Amino acid sequence: MTNNTYFPSMEADQVIWLSHYAVKIPINGPLCNIAAVEITATLLDVQFYIWILQHWYPSTQLDAKEATAYKLLELGGSGYVVIDYPKPTVFVTTPVAVKPGIQKRLFSQINRIKASLSYNDAIGQDLGIIGTPDTSSHLVPDFTLTAELGVGISRARIDYNKYGHDGIMIHL
Asked: Which terminus of the chain, N or C, has less C-beta within 10 A?
């Protein structure tokens, strides 16, 4: 995933950012040489991903929980009444599905906008594509070590954030 400071990491914030971008790209895109057909495709991408975040994914998660509860009830429950299994969510309307890679296409478009000769800070602010730099001081990288237990094998997992440092060194 591309690291930038303008695109939110929290999904609820992504919906807000994407909704704002969808309103502003038809205005600012043509100024930065983004073709109308690409703007239309971007709007379809954004609409589809917002639908995934707000409707499809939460419904699918809820369906999975209900299916698990029903499975466990049928296996270990008791009673004299037959309980019908939960039905999956059916969406009355759905947006047009798009090919995978929404974020890559979006970030590529933003990079081309920023490289446009017509681009300026006012356009960047209006689109929400000017991030705020990380001003916190990170003198050393941050490490997290966890043990992962498996069947017949265990392993150590090391996660780290370099915070802009050139690299890390691990001695065993």
From this structure: C
